[in-house]
Design goal:
This protein is α/β, with parallel strands linked by helices. It is built from 6 helices and 8 strands, in the order βαβαβαβαβαββαβ. Helix 1 packs parallel to helix 6 and helix 5 packs across helix 6. It comes from Paracoccus rhizosphaerae.
Length: 195
């Protein structure tokens, strides 16, 4: 059985969809949900589903990124994940950390990469006048939001959209796309999922 750790920073809605999907004949099981914020609502949600949780407060390491990553690494090593899924994890990981899990770390990003890496993706898509927006699951590499694409889902940009309304529609697709990609990835299938 493939072991999956999930990193979050907030409510964990994508984490919940992943955990809820990893039942029955799914080839993977969640072994840890960890956060950089001990108050992240997703930690309680994961614990309520019986998934072990851990938190390393990044505020305790404001000038020590290596220290934060070393502290985060410990519960990950204890959980022995085969795959790490970033699901709304709002910390940029160093190349050394990423390389440790090369080829085994996934991220979901709220844009149609390679467009709009980084933050404020929905506002940037609207400002550019894009007809479509969406989300992407990709392998994590040392360069931000630049790893091989494993799946994308698209939504139309509607007249009168705001960043918030567009984000809400994209989130619905994130909840469909990430579980679909993880199911494939867990059995070694890297064929992109297109929704």
């Amino acid at each position: 059985m493939t072991r999956v750790a999930i990193l979050i920073s907030g409510g964990g809605s994508n984490m919940l969809r992943l955990v809820e999907d990893m039942t029955g004949d799914h080839p993977a099981r969640p072994v840890l949900v960890a956060s950089n914020d001990p108050q992240a609502a997703g930690l309680a949600r994961a614990a309520a589903l019986g998934v072990p949780v851990a938190a390393v407060d990044h505020h305790d390491f404001s000038r020590d990124r290596a220290g934060f990553e070393a502290a985060l690494l410990q519960p990950l090593l204890d959980a022995r994940p085969d795959i790490i899924c970033l699901a709304g994890f709002m910390r940029i990981l160093t190349p050394d950390f990423v390389q440790r899990f090369a080829g085994r770390m996934l991220n979901i990003h709220p844009s149609l990469l390679p467009k709009y890496a980084g933050l404020d993706t929905h506002a940037r898509a609207l400002a550019a006048g894009d007809a479509q927006a969406g989300c992407t699951v990709h392998e994590v590499t040392p360069e931000l939001d630049s790893g091989p694409l494993l799946g994308q889902a698209r939504v139309p940009v509607l007249l009168g959209d705001t960043p918030e309304s567009l984000a809400a529609r994209v989130l619905v697709q994130e909840h469909r796309l990430y579980p679909a990609v993880l199911r494939r990835f867990a059995v070694g299938d890297r064929t992109p999922v297109l929704l």
